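FORM 7B: Structural annotation worksheet

SECTION A. Query
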Amino acid sequence: MNNPTVCVIIPYYNGSKYIERSANSVLAQTIVPNEFLVVDDGSSIEESEKLKYISEKLGFKVLRKENGGQGSARNFGVENTTSDFISFLDQDDFYLENHIEILLSGIEKKDPHFGWVYADLAEADEDGNIIRWETVKHHSSHPKRFINDLIGNDMHILPSASLINRVAFKSVGGFDPQFTGYEDDDLFLRMFRKGYKNYFLDQAVTVWCINNNSTSYSIKMSRSRLKYFKKLVSFFPDEPDKARYYMKDLIFNRFNSQFIGEAFRSICTSNTPQSKKMSQHKNELVDIANQYIKVMLNNKYLPLKIKIKIFLQRELINTKSKYILTFCYFVYRKIVK
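SECTION B. Predicted structure
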């Protein structure tokens, strides 16, 4: 570990629009990675050919596999590299030039339980124009030292701004491929539970480009959120003897507005392209919300006040009526004010 090695893995899926920018950011590092691999996760023939051309022009390695999602592609990349530390990068984001150098400086070599070091991200638009230089620390506390911070809130730990100990990654089996969203939170939660520590560096190392066509803004994310919710519920049953009520104190506060809010917005759609896209999945989003509500109402430790709130929300969204929901929301806002 006196001279740690680093690999960079980019999962690629029909991303020729972005891949040259992201690959160039890896190749331009002040400390170059020992290994650099792009995993083509079952892209179309045309997109695969574009990737092949760019890889030959820039000089990086490409491996192709059947489509299995980003987590599966990342796992495949890890299996085909050997470096001590793993750094991921999404195809539509890019590294700052000292990304690897900064993260290497954050490795706690004397900590036998070191799991990963991570840093902040700069937020940008799809074209890479910077919007702000600080992102994750405005949404969550860092580093992670208490399990409640990992369950009760979105973690805001991005693999694209992290350097992960291969031993820690392999010890939990890597990413859970069932997820197409929340796979990052799931990975870091499992490494934390396994006994691996994390360290946070308060500076941006990656540019996170907000792309409204990404998985984060799609029905895939909604489906994956439900899967992750159910996994958390199974992993963290309430422990009344220890006064630990994960459902009412953490899980409800984290997910209720997301499940109910998405169903509500799919019915009361606006004129934005994103809203119109999600409205096409109105029935499924209402069904997802109903599955979430069923689990919550079956929890015997959830206070009656919260159960009544959830019950009323269920009755409203199941009308699937824009007019009823809009009227009720208007009345609610008047009462609150």
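SECTION C. Observations
The beta strands are 6-12, 35-41, 61-65, 85-88, 94-95, 114-124, 130-132, 162-165, 197-209. The chain has a mean pLDDT of 93.

SECTION D. Sign-off
Analyst initials: ____
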